[in-house]
Amino acid sequence: MKFYPLQFEPIFKERIWGGEQLKSVLHKSFTSSTIGESWEISTVKEDVSVISNGIWKGKSFIDLIKEYPKEILGTAVYARFGTEFPLLFKYLDAREDLSIQVHPNNSLAQKRHNSFGKTEMWYVIQADKEARIIVGFKEDSNSNTYLENLKNKTLLSILDEVNVKSGDAYFIESGTVHSIGAGLLLAEIQQTSDITYRLYDFDRVDDKGFLRELHVDLALEAINYKKVQTKKEFTKNTNESNVVVDCPYFTTNFISLDGTMEVVKLAETFTVYMCVEGFFEIEKDHIKLQYKKGDTILIPAAMNEFILNGKASILEIYIS
């Protein structure tokens, strides 16, 4: 097959809050003890993914898109975004709490940074007992109340902390104040953006003894001060695409694969599979390719009929 399931070299990011679960649970290979993120598919400047399998092994993903834009991205995605790849896929390991932060929407990000905004979603792969996240305000608030609590170091008192467990999913729209708590391993799907405004970092210092930079002024216009609903309830019917998130930027489905599932799609969009549990294979033209927990696979739009076999939990992502 000319177009085949693509995999990429992970781009590992050391973080003050990172650990080793990406290695011990998701089979990633690195030596550091503070890897917080594995960027699975990225076209962020300076962090462009490189293909790790097949005839295009070693080729930049951006170069492949430029060579075969409609075949890789899909006709509808190409019409909307040109040769820009609009999504970023990650796995995150939070050994410690992440900073409390917010991301700008498309309009603000375009005006300030000539970038996409950052709406994202999380799927919880593994959670320690009592693990929690911060997602927005407990009640509708405003900038004055927020700033007063930030100044008094009581910001947590007005933010919504939620206990989470494996299998939970959360939709974090741009403007939502949020943080990933300690003891969580997540899959993250987001718009292609690396813009984060840090509001509060628990007064932590980096390895050189310095406080990390905060972006309080930049964040004021970006924050949505309304209470938001972020948890996504979804069905887990076997061998079906169960909708988790359907938003203007991406659609994410959950597949509980047990046996065989035929996939037939139009050539309008690429599809990405993130294997969050188990093992499976993709079969096309009597060729079978095998995947495991922690793998991320991009199906080019031109490859629009194939079969999934195995026993696995899979996130299926595309642009509708």
How would you sum up this structure, described in words?
With 320 residues, the chain is mainly β. 14% of the residues lie in helices and 39% in strands. It is globular and about 65 Å long. The protein is built from 7 helices and 19 strands. 40% of the residues are buried. The strands form 5 sheets. It has a 6-stranded antiparallel beta sheet with strand order 1-2-5-12-7-10, with no helix packed on it. Strands 14, 15, 16, 17, 18 and 19 form a 6-stranded antiparallel beta sheet that branches.
Radius of gyration: 20 Å
Order of strands, main sheet, comes to 1-2-5-12-7-10
Mean pLDDT over the residues:
96
Number of helices: 7
| Structural classification | mainly beta
Strand portion: 35-45%
Q: Count the strands?
A: 19
| Share of helix, binned | 10-25%
In the predicted model, the low-confidence regions spanning at least 5 consecutive residues are: none
Main beta-sheet strand count, sense and barrel state: 6 strands, antiparallel
How does the overall form come out from the CA principal axes? globular
Series of H and E elements: EHEEEHHHEEHEEHEEEEEHEEEEEE
* Straight-line distance between termini: 25 Å
